[in-house]
Design goal:
- By secondary structure, this protein is of the alpha+beta class.
- The protein contains 14 helices and 42 strands.
- It has four domains: 190 residues, C8orf32 fold, CATH 3.10.620; 104 residues, Sandwich (Immunoglobulin-like); 120 residues, Immunoglobulin-like; 89 residues, Sandwich (Immunoglobulin-like).
- The strands form eleven sheets. Strands 34, 35, 36, 37, 38, 39, 40, 41 and 42 form a nine-stranded mixed beta sheet that branches. It has a five-stranded antiparallel beta sheet with strand order 15-12-11-10-16. The protein has a four-stranded antiparallel beta sheet with strand order 1-4-6-5.
Length: 678
């Protein structure tokens, strides 16, 4: 072994330059039966922009020709200074057979590898070839420059910093997500790259694997003084903190031959409070990768899942947004220690980062483009705050003020929404806005802090006023079109109004009235609305029981399908006339047909001891009777209306009954009136 060390030293010293440490070199030595057929060629390193770093030697590779090299044993000679510098980027354990010698202050490491290790080593060298240094042998990536910078603010062109078609990754993503870590990092990367053929695909495979296999370690994140986990520990536990995510990603990229850097900084992540300031030590770390001649940003910590703020538990929930995110969007929740890593022109200051509106990743994932106001804190004007959102496609929204869906009017637009909020008290309030997008669940996309110094007591919205308010693209989608009142608020001076709209064939409509003050109860919510159908339109006649504000809710259901009615939207009805005191409409029963029409009497309460005229249109009916103390038949006129009169003397209730088949004697109740006490 002494001969071996001496031979290795002589071979290494021939490559050493004065004043610089030795880098990687290959030395062939005759140990046992060493045979080398062919040629060794010193390859001139290609010049590629790198971040200034430590000096290192060139790379010797085997010339590929018909005279292949046969190697019985291979020696790899390292400068120990170089090896120490690369210690955080190596996954190999020191070989027990390595011999260390010192000469002239330079420590050498000699690795001895037998014949059966050749294929894996040569593969390692081919990966290292892509990381070869510049003319000075530097292998550290270069700092970002002008060509890496993107314009700020966001130009809405793409969520990504480079043109991507995510469909091209379907096969690769499936492969990478199913790879298991069997032993070391090198083998894992090798398995991941079996379906990857470009640097972009190599980065993608590594990203997908980490996001689907590494769990966020909440305990480690809370222990501020804890060191970032080592890659070997992460593979064993499958858990780490943000430093561990970033370190693992960088390490795997370097093994794959892709330039990668870890970027520390501040973040608006778990525990962030709207409008908070940042100082002291950095709380997060992410990565920059060099692809196609430009730096790009990724955050595998936030790509892997989220932490529930109430339970402090981590849940795997893949988030595509943080893969090659456009820098103008990345800066909303990531502020790097070095402004150059913002990759923006112009870069943002820390104060701007603190004050700028924080759009959560779901804001962009669900197709949002912009929101106004653009600051996270809003001051009310005359007791009202207004928020508008622009989206690239029709989207459903909802809001919560202090955890409740109250005190606001949210109306949908073709490409966005408008929200008017009326805080019920002075002080500070939390406003959350949620969007549904293409998924079946609503996700939080925006948070504002409202400062209210005045409450308009005249604006008191019903607690049952749900969202959205007013007809929209969604009501059209549900079968309600061409409304007579396109605005969400309807003012009535006499407490009555009539609302009509076209209804798609096969759709049933149901309406109910809700107010905060009596006499409306759950049993009478629909008694202040009388529904009429003519041609292809539905008319809702509404009579308010008193002055105030009411929510008129509209529901629909497909006639042939089982199940409940679905809420679509509501109107806000307003009446300031304190003299209003309309009674309920007559109670209708199941046999009251969709196309029936009632002209009179519309009041559900009839005066006593009076002759009351009746006029209504009924379809497919043989006979109609009105029953009080006695029974009175109605006759069919030439216009198709059944009409006649009835006396309310001596009775408390009056019914309208119909005979559908002239061959039968069974009458059905369709309407019920009450008679005032004498």
């Amino acid at each position: 072994m002494a001969c071996l060390a001496e031979s290795a030293k002589r071979g290494a010293l021939q490559l050493q330059r004065r004043g610089s440490a030795l880098s990687r070199a290959l030395a062939l030595s005759r140990v046992g039966q060493l045979r080398a057929r062919g040629h060794l060629q010193r390859k001139q390193p290609s010049v590629r922009p790198r971040r200034p770093g430590r000096k290192g030697g060139g790379i010797m590779e085997l010339k590929k020709d018909i005279n292949a090299v046969s190697i019985d044993m291979l020696l790899i000679v390292h400068s120990e200074k170089r090896r120490a510098a690369q210690g955080t980027h190596s996954d190999q354990q020191a070989d027990p057979s390595a011999l260390l010698q010192r000469r002239g202050g330079t420590q050498l490491t000699v690795e001895v590898h037998p014949r059966d290790a050749m294929p894996q080593l040569l593969k390692k060298f081919s990966l290292a070839k892509r990381l070869q240094g510049d003319k000075n042998g530097n292998t550290r990536p270069r700092q970002p420059g002008g060509k890496d910078a993107h314009a700020y603010p966001w130009d809405r062109s793409s969520l990504k910093s480079m043109s991507l078609d995510l469909r091209q990754f379907e096969k690769l993503d499936l492969h990478a997500s199913q790879v298991t870590a069997k032993s070391g990092l090198d083998e894992l990367v090798s398995d991941l790259l079996q379906e990857a053929h470009t640097d972009l695909e190599r980065v993608r495979a590594i990203w997908i694997w980490i996001c689907h296999h590494i769990e966020y370690d909440i305990a480690a994140a809370q222990e501020k003084d804890r060191q970032a986990f080592k890659p070997t520990d992460i593979l064993r536990t499958q858990k780490t903190n943000c430093d561990g995510y970033a370190g693992l990603f960088e390490r795997m990229c370097r093994i794959a031959g892709v330039q990668c850097m870890t970027v520390p900084g501040y973040s608006k992540g778990f525990g962030y409070q709207t409008g908070q300031s940042f100082s002291g030590e950095f709380d997060h770390a992410w990565n920059a990768v060099y692809l196609e001649g430009r730096w790009h940003l990724v955050d595998s910590t936030w790509g892997s899942g989220l932490v529930d703020t109430t339970t402090s538990k981590f849940t795997f929930l893949y988030n595509e947004f943080y893969f090659l995110t456009h820098p103008a969007l990345f800066i909303e929740d990531h502020f790097p220690d070095n402004k150059n890593w913002q990759l923006l022109k112009p870069p943002q200051s820390l104060r701007q980062f603190e004050n700028n509106m924080y759009h959560k990743s779901e804001f962009y994932n669900k197709g949002m483009l912009s929101a106004h106001p653009e600051t996270s804190m809003i001051r009310t004007v005359n007791g009202k705050a207004t928020v508008t959102i622009e989206s690239c496609a029709p989207t459903l929204f909802m809001f919560m003020l202090n955890g409740k869906q109250e005190h606001g009017l949210l109306s949908l637009r073709k490409n966005g929404m408008k929200l008017e909020v009326y805080p019920p008290t002075m002080g500070t309030h939390k406003l959350q806005i949620f969007a549904k997008g293409n998924s079946d669940i609503y996700s939080s996309v925006l948070e504002y802090t409202l400062k209210c110094n005045y409450v308009d007591m005249g604006v008191r919205l019903p607690a049952e006023l749900h969202q959205p308010v007013g007809p929209s693209w969604f009501s059209e989608q549900m079968g309600i079109m061409k409304p007579s009142h396109p605005d969400p608020i309807i003012h009535t001076s006499d407490g009555r109004c009539s609302i009509s709209f076209s209804v798609e064939e096969g759709i049933n409509v149901l309406a109910s009235l809700h107010g905060d003050d009596g006499p409306i109860t759950e049993e009478t919510q629909r008694r202040y609305i009388f529904q009429l159908h003519w041609e292809k339109r539905t008319e809702l006649k509404v009579q308010l029981p008193h002055a105030g504000k009411f929510a008129l809710k509209i529901f629909v259901k497909k006639r042939q399908e089982p199940g409940n009615y679905i809420f679509v939207f509501n109107y806000l009805l307003c009446c300031a006339n304190t003299k209003v005191n309309w009674p309920m409409f007559p109670e209708s029963f199941g046999n009251w047909g969709q196309d029936n029409e009632l002209l009179e009497p519309l009041s559900g309460v009839l005066p006593a001891n009076r002759n009351i005229p009746f006029k209504l249109k009924l379809h497919g009916i043989a006979k109609v009777l009105v029953k009080g103390q006695d029974t009175w038949p109605l006759t069919l006129n030439h216009e198709g209306y059944w009409e006649g009169s009835c006396s309310t003397a001596g009775c408390q209730e009056v019914y309208v009954m119909v005979l559908e088949n002239a061959n039968h004697n069974f009458y059905s109740y369709i309407l019920k009136y009450k008679v005032n006490a004498q």
